[in-house]
Amino acid sequence: MAETAKILSPSKTVVLPDLEAGCSLADSCTPDAFSAFIAEHPNHVVITYVNCSAEIKVLSDIVCTSSNALKIVESIPKERLIIFAPDRNLGKYINKMTGRDMLLWEGSCIVHEAFSIDKLLELLKKYPDFKIIAHPESEEHILKTATYIGSTSGMINYVKMHPKEKFIVATEVGILHKMKQEVPNTELIPAPVYEDNTCACSECGFMRVNTLQKLYDCLLNEAPQINVPEAIRERALLPIKRMLELSK
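Given the sequence above, the corresponding structure tokens read:
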């Protein structure tokens, strides 16, 4: 995401508290492997989820977010073949919603694949008046239990629109903090994961690499900075611009 900010605003200084704060989803799709994959499947429109590297965006025809993925895919004529990468779970969800048969890259977010369906159903038995809301990066069996499926902003807005409801939330646990800020009296429970941990929730280890101290230091020192080579930036900007045009 820091790279995307730099691609869109090359004259701005973009800093990241810790360069190790990457993304398991982005890591699952390397440029060499994806380039070979595209070559094996010619004549496909290449749509990539924004959580990918600048080099992957260079190989893309258009970029999407979880908020606009459905709209982006529906903008492509049905007779056109599509490669969707890197999140296979989001791709499966879009296929189901559109009736398409997009060719999916086998990537995923480790956070959204950590939820346990057995534990989730047990939790629902314990709290039958709670509704499940889930991010479309979650696995299909989790999505089947959800009353609402949507992006991070979509889930927050859904909770705001239903302040008297109670929710089990299947996405990165940090979202609950924002939800509680927006609707402080709404009861929220994080969806349980396969492995036991102290909070019975799903945390992104990559996000947790960024700490308040590192944030303070990077703002103070304006480092480490994110830079994208101009040749890559110009080419990566094109599929992002196409997304922005279609999202108006």
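The mean pLDDT is 90. Try to locate this feature in the token string yourself.
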